[in-house]
Design brief:
Layout lengths: L5 H6 L9 E4 L4 E4 L7 E5 L2 E2 L13
Length: 61
């Protein structure tokens, strides 16, 4: 995880629904664990961009 420790990840919550995050290594994103949310927030330079407008919406199957 670039510059983002597990301790910091434990403190962060989704700004949309306040659920916790999981780390998507391949996409370099923080993904909300909320079942109705699931927004994916990008990391740029190791810094999470926790703006709802910057988040990627989950794809619906």
């Amino acid at each position: 995880m670039p510059d983002l420790t597990h301790d910091v990840l434990d403190l962060l919550v989704c700004p949309a629904c306040h659920s916790t995050f999981t780390w998507d290594y391949e996409a370099s994103e923080l993904v909300c664990t909320g079942t109705d949310c699931g927004l994916a927030y990008p990391l740029r330079g190791g810094i999470p961009i926790l703006l709802i407008d910057e988040a990627r919406r989950p794809t619906r199957d």
